[in-house]
Amino acid sequence: MIKQYSFFAYWRKKDVEFLNSLGLKEDIEEGADVFLIEESETYNKIIAHYSKKNSLFSKTKLEKFSCVFTGVIFSKEELDQGRVYDLIDTGVSKGFPLPEDTFEDDIFTYDCRKCESGKKQKAPFRITKPKWKKNEVNFTLRDRDFIFFKKDFFQEVLAPLGLKSREVIIHNTGKITEDVVQLIIPEAKSKLLIEGTTYDREKPCEKCNIKQYSIQTLDFFPAFENKFEFLICKTKEEFLGGRRRIIITKTFCDLLVKHKVIKFNTNHLTPMVKVK
Asked: Does residue 58 register a pLDDT over 60?
């Protein structure tokens, strides 16, 4: 697992010369600029160079200098060893549900509108009729914890596994689409062992006092408290914006990879902590 950091500052000419001399993947420009870097010897050199303990830096402090931990990248070996994964993303996003200005209240109810906690779907999604690319079988919308599949693919591949679907409406006609369904993802039968982990760093909502968790990939994903049988489920816990994380087993992961719904890499998957 490799940690990633984001550096930001209003870089001066001498800073640009120093940073670009390190052979970063991207050239840094003078003025406000940001770049990502993996934890490495180069990262250590930058930290040392701009450390507050460095007297030169103390005298000529960079404006708005910051270093923020942004996430992690997992190795092929770490992914291979996983038996359960947090499904980060599937397919391509085809924009927002419709109508864009009211869909959140048209489709969902909330326990708290401020932090969007307790979000529950009350009506079908309304979308523009999708244009399918060759071999494309699924897509997402703005809310990436909702997944949509080609109806034929769902019936042939997913329905035999016991999974259920929900109808989707073409917005400008108000009719049920003939070739798209929304996958119904059941809720997990166990809570996560998430308290005190790196994901547990958000403050409770000021209005409802409900705690949500970080949406970023900050470590191996926390394990469930108790074992239960599933192929795909959504966490009981909520993450920023009222989002639930989608958890899949290795078996279901292999199926999605086989049908090119996802790629077996860290952009799509976060392995769950193994329970000893």
From this structure: no
